[in-house]
Amino acid sequence: MGPAYPPDSKQDFLDEQEYFDESPMRGDDDSDDDRSHGVTSLLEENARLRALVVRLTDLVLKSVADQR
């Protein structure tokens, strides 16, 4: 069984935004690293939760199929 949801296009959007946010005049800040780490953490958590949804969907579908 495939994923319950289509692939997430937010990562592409975030990649594009990072491209536009980069400016040669900006210095390297720790705040950028913190923000980047925060975004990465959220994306990883999102992927983990999506995988759990797929597993739960599979279990529910198997349970329904077994009852028939």
Please give the structural blueprint.
Blueprint: H1 10-21, H2 30-67
Tell me about the largest β-sheet.
none
- The helix fraction, in percent, is over 70%
| SS summary, helix count | 2
Mean pLDDT: 78
Percent of sequence in beta strands: under 5%
Give the topology string: H per helix, E per strand: HH
How widely separated are the two ends? 19 Å
Assembly state (oligomeric): single chain
Radius of gyration (CA) equals 19 Å
Low-confidence region ranges: none
Region (Disordered): 18-39
Characterise the protein shown here.
The protein has 68 residues and is mostly helical. The chain has a domain at 34-68. It is 74% helix and 0% strand. The protein has two helices and no strands. The chain has helices at 10-21, 30-67. The protein is elongated, with a radius of gyration of 19 Å. Residues 18-39 are annotated as: Disordered.
Search tags:
68 residues, mainly alpha, elongated
